[in-house]
Design goal:
The protein is mainly alpha-helical and 252 residues long. It has 2 domains: 132 residues, Rossmann fold; 110 residues. The chain has a two-stranded parallel sheet with strand order 1-2. Strands 3-4 form a two-stranded antiparallel ribbon. A hairpin with a 2-residue loop joins strand 3 and strand 4.
């Protein structure tokens, strides 16, 4: 990989200046995730498989990942519910819809215009036919669309921000405990070689307590991560409905 591409990826993953020289051990959980993604993007391969890569990333990190993927010169196969990524990156879609799998040879905008996510059942079709006559659609200006979108994003940030910080704190706590555990295991080896019975017993208790703490941190992080995923899904649905509503009023 040439130096320019390396600088592009490093900058895109929000590591610039002295930050790019930091050791992995001092990085936060979110920063480590960006390093891992950057390493994948920098690896000289021609195929990249990503399964919901935006999970647990904040908006700034998502933007950075989007930029980094744009520098990847190979093929990217991605599973995602993030419509920003679909609009920006997708050139061909494998669509799972109504218990069927179809391949759409085009970008996401073309898919929404030609097919979209609307259900095709007769009841829904009748409802859509009657709605414009019974309740005239309210046309949203671009300014109003931006305002509503900003409100949704602000509410999402307010709700998910504390959870993201909690997940990051738990990741840092796990790393700290794992480092402590490594030192304890090294001390255990020395105590065993010296046949120091009291020291072995003391270290065994400390290792057991440290492993228990790590397990508890992982349990807490799993609960927080699931709650974060659920909240993000709710706000993604709100953004999708806002966009779909705008398209429908534009067609009236």
């Amino acid at each position: 990989m040439d130096r320019q591409r390396a600088r592009n990826i490093c900058g895109a993953m929000m590591f610039s200046g002295d930050d790019a020289l930091k050791k992995i051990s001092v990085l936060s959980g979110g920063e480590k995730s960006r390093v891992m993604l950057g390493k994948l993007l920098a690896t000289p391969v021609n195929l990249l498989l990503l399964d919901e890569p935006t999970n647990h990333l904040d908006m700034e990190s998502c933007d950075a990942l989007l930029t980094a993927i744009s520098f990847f010169e190979g093929t990217v196969i991605m599973v995602t519910h993030n419509e920003m990524f679909l609009h920006t990156l997708a050139e061909r879609l494998v669509v799972f819809k109504d218990d069927h799998i179809t391949v759409f040879d085009g970008n996401y905008r073309e898919f929404l215009e030609k097919d979209g996510w609307e259900h095709k059942d007769p009841g829904a079709a009748v409802t859509r036919t009657k709605t414009p006559r019974q309740e005239p659609a309210v046309r949203l200006t671009k300014k109003e669309m931006r305002r509503q979108r900003s409100e949704i994003i602000a509410r999402r940030s307010k709700k998910t921000g504390p959870l993201e910080k909690r997940v990051n704190r738990l990741e840092d706590a796990i790393q700290t405990k794992e480092e402590e555990l490594e030192h304890l295991n090294q001390a255990m080896q020395q105590a065993t070689q010296q046949q120091n019975g009291p020291r072995i017993a003391e270290l065994a208790r400390a290792i057991h307590a440290g492993q228990g703490a790590i397990d508890n941190f992982f349990d807490e992080m799993e609960i927080a991560s699931d709650e974060l995923d659920s909240l993000n899904a709710v706000f993604e649905q709100e953004l999708r409905q806002l966009e779909d509503g705008s398209k429908q009023t534009a067609e009236c």
